[in-house]
Amino acid sequence: MTEQSSPLERSLALTVSLANVEAEVLKRLKHTAKNIRMDGFRPGKVPMNIVESQYGDQLRREVLSESAQGSFAAEVQKQGLHVAGAPHFETVSIRNDNGDYEFKATFEVFPDITLGDISAAELERPIVTVEDADVDRTIEVLRKQRTRWLPATRAAQEGDRLKINYKGFKDDIAFDGGTADNQMIVLGAGQFLPDFEKALPGVSVGETRSFDMTFPADYHAKDLAGAPVRFEVTVLEIQMPELPEVDADFARMLGIESGDVTAMRDEIKANLEREMKKRVQNKLKDQVMKVLFETTPVECPKSLLEAEIERLRENARQDWRMRTGQDTQGVDLPAALFEDQAKRRVSLGMILTEIVEKHDLKAQAVQVRTFLEEQAQSYEQPDEMMKWFYSQPDRLQEAESVVLEDNVVEWALGTAKVTDKVLPFQELIGQTA
To answer: What's the structural domain count of the chain?
Structure first.
């Protein structure tokens, strides 16, 4: 009989046959006896009472656990219960009047979900075209990434790279963090505060320039925020940039073996179009997920919520370790920091499952293959990448999840109110300057 202690929590009384448990324990003891080695006995000749004394309790616990799990699985299947998370087993009676074991299994079930109506929801679909100017901008970025720095015999100007020594003074006293030697700076690149960089054009090698400036009011070092200071900068080297010409050598540098500049531009455009498609889809997906979350209230099973919080917490620890190299043991990351995000993720997972089942939006094999082929095109050997994708079950599962979400997005676009909005490529990728 199933008891209900809260909207999602249930409990089941389970009985495990003592006779069946002991029969399985004996079977495992015999198997163990054949394989163990013990001083004073030949292999397979250890007396059963000794095997029982050493391994009986452990094997009995294993068999009881497996039997309880099996009994639980059979019962929830019989009752058609959709279990969320792992059940908790509690021993009620070691041996009842019939000589059986009695357990109580406490667990949660998935909530019944009533999908909200999104027909009145407003979604905005970006319409983006990759233009020749976008290709030109990308080529300029690629050229700058391959800049050669040549010694300059003239005074420094915007875009030059300087090697400098500097020292900062506040009230004529050198302040902490204001001194460095052999520091590289590209004028105009924004590596230093604007007023610092603006003071350096026109300097020559060997020159020491002194200038006053004021730190921004919101500067991170509180003792310097808004403070007037003086810097002394000595120039050790001046280098001017030389960008590669857009020619056959440059094309080959980018992997176009023929050196055909037109082919290079076509490949760059194809790469930008793939990026554009991905960004547009992500923008649509963000809108759809927001609408689904807001229109379909869901009560989250505590077990799933706690598991997701722990997963997000561990991700945060790993990210911190990767970025700082510091150990995160002992670092307190309260569950409350992740609760809202975890609730959203768990809720959306259940909502998406309901939509997929109700509208038959399961990821088809041909959809998964098409998605992976598009991903593989960004690698030098697409065929090898496809083999790798299909040799990794986890990769296939990730691809299926993405396709499934894309199917839900397409369904939402056909259900909600959609307005097309023309958007420049640079605005789409967040470069409006």
So the answer is: 3
Q: Give the span between the Cα atoms of 60 and 41, in whole angstroms.
A: 24
Sign of the torsion formed by the C-alpha atoms of 300, 301, 302 and 304: negative
How far is residue 121's CA from residue 418's CA, in Å, rounded to a whole number?
A: 8
Half-sphere exposure of 340 (CA within 13 A, CB side): 1
| 294 and 334 in a common domain | yes
Structure confidence at residue 431 (pLDDT):
63
Residues 282 and 424 in one domain: yes
End-to-end alpha-carbon separation of the chain, Å?
Answer: 67
Helical H segments across 42-173, by residue range = 48-79, 132-145
240-264: per-residue pLDDT in tens?
A: 999 999 999 999 999 999 999 999 9
Would you state the pLDDT for residue 433? 44
Average pLDDT, the chain: 92
- Going from the C-alpha of 306 to that of each of 37, 90, 313, 332, 399, the distances in angstroms are 44, 21, 10, 16, 26
DSSP 95: S
For 236, the token pair is 């050790």
Q: Which domain holds residue 7?
A: 2-109
pTM value?
Answer: 0.78
Ranges under pLDDT 70 in the chain: 1, 94-98, 330, 431-433
3-state helix, strand, coil in the chain (%, to 5): 45, 20, 30
My answer on whether 278 and 391 are in the same domain is: yes
| Residues 228, 84 share a domain | no
E strands, 110-171, are 122-127, 148-151, 161-170
